[in-house]
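Team,

Forwarding the record for the chain on the shared tracking sheet. I've put the sequence and predicted structure together so nobody has to dig through attachments.
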Amino acid sequence: MNAAHPQQVILSSSERGLTRTVGLHGFEENFSPRMDEKIQYRAETMPATITQPANDDARGNAIDKIMLATEISMRYHKRRKQHYDGVYKILVFSTLMLSAAAFLLHMTHQGLIGFAVIGLGVISLVWNFSHKAREHDILVNQHGQLLETIRLTHTPTLDHLKQWRMQRMNIQSKEPPIYWAVMNDCTYDVARAWDLKPKKRGCPVMLRPFMNWIRF
């Protein structure tokens, strides 16, 4: 595969929600943080290729695959929640400070400050950052419950595996549009935690301040 070009993968109907991943026990499988999407991965963000061992347990591989994908989704939604929480707090703080300043300045300045306060209120109401933060918080909890269920199951069966896949797909169906630069960044972080040795982060340093605002 040419590393200069990103790898494009389209999910198949039989393996929805699965697009290229690497698990704990040394296998190369497929996963996607979101089902039924055309996903564009940057080659430099992909984990190192691990060869297939002869005695690998296929069921264990599939479980590792779901755990890895779920952990990436949890990290992604946590970061999105923190972003919206931060924006909402800045808006509330700015509104309160400007409102207080309006009482301390002359009438001409009060008009300008009042206009700014109204603008901040409109932004908060229209984009509803607090609601977006709660939405991602709910998704974090749902992914966390799924991951906890998988880890606490001592003898998983194929029925468990099917149930977990269906539960994950149900959670994914409620997700808002994915910011892929943030998702790639989370994939890199989780891959490092799993000791999969990813090459480097896909998002350039100059674009990182915009990764939570623009989908690229």
